[in-house]
Amino acid sequence: MSDNSRDLVDLGNQLNSPNYGPAPVVFDRGSGVWLTDTDGNRYLDFLAGIAVCSLGHAHPRLTDALHDQVDRLLHVSNMFFTGEQIALMDRLCARSFADRAFLCNSGTEANEAAFKLARRYQSRVKNHPSKSTILSMKSSFHGRTLASITATGQPKYHDGFEPLAPGFDYVPFNDVDALKERFDDDICAVIVEPVQGEGGVRPADPEFLETLRGLCDDYDALLIFDEVQTGVGRTGRLFAYQHFDVAPDIMTLAKGLGGGVPVGATLATEEVWQGFQRGSHASTFGGNPLASRAGAVVLDVIDDEDLLKNAAQRGRQLRQGLHKLAEEFDCITDVRGMGLLVGAQCIDKQHATDLVALARRQGLLINSAGGDTLRFVPPLVVTDDDVEDALHRLRQALEDL
Length: 401
Ligand SMILES: Cc1ncc(COP(=O)(O)O)c(C=O)c1O
Prior knowledge:
By secondary structure, the chain is an alpha/beta fold. It has two domains: 3-59 and 306-400, Aspartate Aminotransferase, domain 1 (Alpha-Beta Complex), CATH 3.90.1150; 73-304, Aspartate Aminotransferase, domain 2, CATH 3.40.640. Helices cover 40% and strands 18% of the residues. It contains 13 helices and 17 strands. The strands form four sheets. The protein has a seven-stranded mixed sheet with strand order 4-12-11-10-7-5-6, with helices on both faces. The mean pLDDT is 98. Residues 106-108, 111, 141-143, 193, 197-198, 226, 228-229, 254 line the site of pyridoxal-5'-phosphate.
């Protein structure tokens, strides 16, 4: 590492809030699936800003649109419309079960809106204020604001932040019997990830989601799909719920929606949106024209470049390659995922941590999720050759272990 880069890392470590522990790399620019650091080293980016850079880095259509938008209009507030905001909401509603959208800036913010909407729907529209419990899954992840960490079914994220938000409860993921056992009239809504991402890349069983939908209908509870990580093409469908015979009442999005520009969205049916009236909720930056333009362009490029098909095919190729590596290297014990949300479970957390660092030394960026699982979430534009290249670099990392 050059002296200049070392100085930058040292200064960053002095100034950064202590909740992050970045690797000693300073990135400078990106192009497609590649990132370049301040010393000119290139990395194959199979992390994509944790499933954010859906079109890769510096995609010309996104870059050109953002340049144009910066020249024209950045912000006006939600007291007015912009064409960009309407275009994004239109695309999201036309392509999903939803009738209306609330635009915001992050996944946790989209989930907060979903919880508030569900509670207001039950208390004001259905006149059931006691129907207030939000049920979530163990090992889930829903964000870092207070209600979202409370919904997150992993005690390590709660530690020291008590008292948590009241009115949340948990059931084991994919456990139909436990779900049936817990369901009752107090349930306001259930939030679930169609594939648990941070929890270790664990897809939901179709039977579990179908049972959940049936129970929500029977008990008049709302079903919230947190598609912050799975949405916007990541799993090979525009939204992961479209793989299942189940549609939610509310869906949350963020991450890949803006392709790197912060955009979140809470989508719901007309019936459920009756829970909000003017003034019930807001976000200053939500739906600003720059962010909305990014979201609309990402959705258009996904269509124009057939990226759903690419995500499905490249995901299959990646999983097949990982299965082959698992046959050769005992430290990989399982390969899971949907589309380009792929996990390779290691025998323990230490192996996963070491492999992430060794892969980086080989010029491959990945991370670990759920402690012991390597997570691969490359841009949706990744090619056949990129996947082979990544598998080759991972093999070298496995040999170095
Ligand atoms: C499923 C899911 N929900 C919510 C979030 C929180 O999103 P954000 O970090 O944008 O608040 C994440 C982030 O990893 C996520 O994976």
